[in-house]
Write a structure and sequence with these properties.
- The protein is of the alpha/beta class.
- The protein has two domains: 8-36 and 297-425, Lyase, Ornithine Decarboxylase, Chain A, domain 1; 107-290, TIM Barrel.
- It is 29% helix and 24% strand.
- The chain has twelve helices and 23 strands.
- Strands 4, 16, 17, 18, 19, 20, 21, 22 and 23 form a nine-stranded mixed β-sheet that branches. It has an eight-stranded parallel β-barrel with strand order 5-6-7-8-9-13-14-15, surrounded by six helices.
- Helix 2 (38-53) runs parallel beside helix 9.
- The protein starts with 7 loop residues before the first strand and ends in a 19-residue tail after the last helix.
- The chain binds ligand LLP.
């Protein structure tokens, strides 16, 4: 298993992160436990900030969908990043954390009237408008409130990039954005310019997630700037901001070779400058929206081993006290992870086992066929690269409470998310009067 960030092994043979012994963390905070390596999180934020804002006019917008809590908002703010929210709930979190609204970008393909109003009233920086209906809704609400709103239009450039390949056609078939190829993107520009309470600042696209190749970003820049040129010719509108979305891949398991953050900047910045020149446009402000590549490598999850079931000649299932409720990615996407036994780091790996979750679902498997030291109940399993899209996709399936989350930094561990209690699980449950148990007391007989 690759030791990332501040991970190391101490003399006791225990996994250490942020100078904290993970076996002690498990004892103190219980498991499953999300552990955020604050130094790594901040370092990734800084790498983005430096790679982009030192070299050109740029904003780095952290994608809150990857990992968001009040404390995370504080870290993101302190590191000088902006924040991408995609729902009223994410915006509410940012508001409650006191995150500056002048640094909020509001995404979403189906923002409700309430969400749009919330954004207008909060005075967020930019709406990323996904479709023409949203343009009209926003215009109506902004004019009712006597406000001007600044927007980017989300376009579908006809590129779809995934981990190891990318396709340049076919992406018109997406629930997101206005396709350039169908003419809807140009219609969006024309309508936005016509609406008096809307100010069209720029264009946005997001070409995928967990991307290992960089050329698709340069292609996206070319396609969007070519479109900006066509829009200028057709309407006179000039692009000020170009948002190329997020998507940079990270290391999850052997074979993953993600590019560096600096490599992404060195692809995007020259490409935008080059194509702006080629299409005789001013160089726009460059925006990027990383989520996974900041939060992902910063998080590990700790579990405790429970039942071990060996089916002779077939397989050994090692069940842990979490699973698809705290990390849906293996069950949903077949996502691969590495893991280690946090209390047996000095022991040689000799046994092939499969790590299972505790949900009533055969598909609730965390890792198939992993070679580990001999395991026993109460061993602590650590799964790295679990900072992104784990807590934010967590559920209460089987009425399992969601785990706690802590930050670790220089030997200090601090709770940033309380473990859910059973009381939390029934907090919103209601028994209608008619279903109430009739309590017959002596007096009522
Ligand atoms: N911007 C937009 C418009 C996005 O849709 C996304 C991710 C991002 C930025 C951030 O992308 P990142 O840098 O994190 O790749 N649940 C999936 C990932 C879904 C990504 C959705 N959009 C997973 O667990 O792999």
């Amino acid at each position: 298993m690759l030791l990332q960030g501040t991970m190391r092994v101490n003399d006791a043979g225990h996994l250490v992160i942020g100078d904290c012994d993970t076996v002690e963390l498990a004892r103190e905070f219980g498991t499953p436990l999300y552990v955020l390596d604050e130094q790594t999180f901040r370092a990734k934020c800084r790498a983005y900030y430096q790679a982009f804002t030192a070299k050109t006019n740029a904003d780095v917008i952290y994608a809150g969908k990857s990992l968001l809590t009040l404390a995370i908002c504080r870290l993101v703010e302190e590191e000088g990043l902006c924040l991408d929210v995609v729902s009223g709930g994410e915006l509410f979190t940012a508001i409650k954390a006191g995150f500056p609204m002048s640094r909020i970008y509001f995404h979403g393909n189906n923002k409700s009237v309430e969400e749009l109003l919330m954004g207008i009233e909060a005075g967020i920086h930019r709406f990323i408008v996904d479709n023409i209906r949203e343009l009209y809704l926003l215009q109506n609400l902004a004019s009712q409130k006597g406000r001007q709103v600044d927007i980017l239009l989300r376009l579908t450039p006809g590129i779809e990039a995934h981990t190891h390949d990318y396709i340049k056609t076919g992406q018109i078939d997406s629930k997101f954005g206005l396709a350039i190829a169908t003419g809807q993107a140009m219609e969006g520009v024309r309508e936005a310019l016509r609406l008096t309470n809307i100010r069209l600042r720029g264009l946005h696209c997001h070409i995928g997630s967990q991307i290992f190749e960089l050329e698709p970003y340069a292609d996206a820049a070319r396609i969007l700037l070519q479109f900006a040129r066509e829009a200028k010719d057709a309407t006179g509108w000039e692009i000020e901001e170009l948002n190329l979305g997020g998507g940079l891949g990270i290391y999850y398991a052997e074979g993953d070779r993600p590019p560096e953050i600096a490599d992404l900047a060195e692809t995007i910045i020259p490409a935008v400058h080059k194509y702006a020149r080629e299409f005789s446009l001013p160089v726009p402000k460059i925006l990027v929206e990383p989520g996974r590549s900041i939060a992902g490598p910063s998080g590990i999850t700790l579990y405790t081993v429970g039942t071990i079931k060996t089916i002779p000649g077939i397989r050994t299932y090692v069940s842990v006290d979490g699973g698809m409720t705290d990390n849906l990615r293996p069950a949903l996407y077949g996502a691969r992870y590495e893991a280690c036994v946090a209390n047996k780091m000095h022991m040689p790996s000799s046994h092939t086992v499969s790590l299972a979750g505790k949900c009533c679902e055969s598909g609730d498997m965390l890792i198939w066929d992993i070679i580990m030291p001999p395991l026993e109940p109460d061993d602590i399993i650590a799964v790295p690269s679990t900072g992104a899209y784990t807590y934010t996709m967590a559920s209460n399936y089987n009425r399992i409470p969601r785990p706690a989350m802590i930050t670790v930094l220089n030997g200090q561990a601090e709770l940033i998310l309380k473990r859910e209690s059973y009381d939390d699980l029934i907090r919103n449950d209601i028994i209608p009067e008619r279903l109430m148990r009739k309590v017959t007391t002596e007096a009522s007989k």
